[in-house]
């Protein structure tokens, strides 16, 4: 697709220009703005296995390394309190946040005691979806996001996840068992693996539906320079030419109408199927009200529904009524799918965390050793900083809000002192020429199907740019920590 290739090139080159780290010696983050809502991001950089596609800050797990780290992250959290911050939401990413459950629970409890926390989102891996973990997370975490990546056993083996996390069927069963513990259970998936075919992708989508997860995120595989070699060695070279077709399959199977399945009124993006769009690559399950699949040929019975939380997925029989007949595992309220969409500004604590406040982006040291030393000396852990000019801030707003499926034109003009057409004329001309906008009036922009895919492309390239920023921070590692990552 010509528009995809052009957009990829433009975003790649522009991110190279403005995502460059300068040295930062600030002892504290900037203070909060009165009335500005903030989310707190925490980073836990420890994993049992280092996945070949991951560019986030992560190290092989060691209890001796992790326990003091959690203690210092709690100290850094209190530094934010001293600066005057309050938070209604926490997102804990990694790494594997649940790798030391007692430390994670203590950290969440302190956050809830200190701030006005209403919801906590955390990432995890499939091997932690077991009763002893789930019982402790219940009530503490509202949204749990499990890194599945694929249910295909061959792909799991390529990624070195099969032996550690189990086969696809085992992962599916664990998600089904874990879902009732949380307001929202998200299945994190990756598409466009070199060895992935359309059939294996369809199977992944069917397994997500069968699992009962209330939310799923399908990220395109991102070949950042730091992981390009390991990706090529383990799963092969990424082919972006078929990415659009794969995205079309995902959105069609998740959001298009399923014959004989009624999910209520059409969604805001025209969805009539089992899921609504939460962002360009996140999908939230819709309540299923009635179905008539029993009378259809067996080969057409591809819908799976989890009738009650905790029950096994099974087919639904003929129903000749509009009355609700099945309780789908649907979150009672929208949960965070991409915190960069829900919160424009957010401080981050922990080694490798990335903060965005005002016009500045701060990167915390990637060295756990240096992180601990900074916190114990009474300093926060920023090691690098990049500052966005007005145009770059406008581009960031444009990208994040449209990735979240709607841009508020009036708010844009209020915040930047210029209309979006005057502030970003080239971007608006390109998107209009591509037929990206479903709504383009004086109040808002919304997206067509093509527009949503272009936002996937834009965010893919932006995140590759952010990963390059991480590489700049990672390059400062020395000694044992460098050996742990690079050998």
UniProtKB/TrEMBL annotation:
Protein's GO biological process: porphyrin-containing compound biosynthetic process
GO cellular component: cytoplasm
InterPro entries associated with the record: Coproporphyrinogen-III_oxidase, Elp3/MiaA/NifB-like_rSAM, rSAM, rSAM_horseshoe, rSAM_sf
Domain of life: Bacteria
Annotated ranges, domain Radical SAM core: 32-256
Classification via SMART domains: Elp3 (SM00729)
Example GO molecular function: 4 iron, 4 sulfur cluster binding
Protein name in the entry: Heme chaperone HemW
Native species: Parvibacter caecicola
């Amino acid at each position: 697709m010509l528009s995809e290739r052009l957009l990829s090139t433009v975003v790649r080159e522009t991110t190279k220009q403005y995502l460059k780290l300068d040295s930062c010696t600030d002892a504290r983050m900037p203070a909060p703005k009165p009335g500005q809502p903030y989310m707190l991001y925490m980073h836990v950089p420890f994993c049992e296995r280092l996945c070949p596609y991951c560019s986030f800050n992560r190290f092989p797990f060691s209890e001796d390394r992790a326990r003091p780290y959690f203690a210092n992250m709690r100290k850094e959290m209190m530094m934010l309190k001293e600066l005057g911050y309050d938070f209604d939401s926490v997102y804990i990413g990694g790494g594997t946040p649940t790798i030391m459950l007692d430390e994670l629970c203590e950290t969440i409890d302190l956050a809830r005691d200190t701030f006005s926390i209403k919801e906590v989102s955390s990432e995890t891996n499939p091997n932690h979806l077991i009763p002893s973990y789930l019982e402790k997370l219940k009530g503490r975490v509202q949204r749990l996001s499990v890194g599945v990546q694929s249910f295909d056993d061959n792909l799991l083996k390529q990624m070195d996840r099969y032996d550690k996390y189990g086969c696809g069927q085992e992962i599916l069963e664990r998600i089904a068992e874990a879902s009732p513990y949380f307001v929202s259970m998200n299945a994190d998936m990756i598409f466009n693996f070199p060895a992935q075919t359309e059939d294996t992708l369809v199977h992944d989508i069917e397994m997500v539906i069968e699992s009962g997860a209330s939310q799923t995120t399908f990220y395109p595989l991102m070949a950042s320079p730091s992981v390009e070699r390991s990706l090529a060695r383990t799963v092969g070279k990424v082919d972006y030419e078929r990415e659009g077709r794969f995205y079309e399959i995902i959105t069609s199977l998740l959001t298009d109408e399923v014959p004989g399945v009624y999910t209520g009124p059409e969604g805001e993006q025209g969805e009539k199927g089992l899921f609504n769009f939460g962002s360009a690559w996140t999908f939230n399950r819709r309540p299923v009200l009635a179905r008539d699949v029993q009378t259809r040929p067996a080969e057409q019975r591809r819908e799976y529904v989890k009738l009650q939380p905790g029950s096994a997925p099974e087919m639904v029989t003929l129903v000749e009524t509009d009355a609700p007949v099945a309780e789908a595992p649907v979150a009672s309220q929208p949960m965070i799918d991409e915190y960069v969409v829900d919160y424009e500004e957010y401080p981050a604590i922990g080694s490798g965390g990335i903060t965005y406040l005002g016009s500045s982006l701060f990167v915390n040291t990637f060295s756990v050793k240096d992180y601990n030393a900074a916190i114990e000396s009474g300093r926060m852990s920023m090691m690098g900083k990049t500052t966005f000019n007005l145009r770059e801030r406008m581009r960031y707003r444009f990208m994040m809000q449209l990735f979240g499926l709607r841009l508020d034109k009036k708010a844009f003009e209020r915040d930047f002192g210029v209309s979006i057409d005057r502030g970003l004329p080239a971007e608006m001309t390109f998107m209009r020429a591509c037929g990206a906008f479903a709504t383009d009036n004086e109040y808002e922009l919304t997206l067509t199907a093509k527009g949503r895919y272009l936002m996937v492309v834009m965010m893919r390239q932006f995140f590759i740019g952010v990963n390059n920023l991480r590489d700049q921070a990672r390059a400062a590692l020395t000694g044992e920590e460098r050996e742990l990552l690079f050998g």
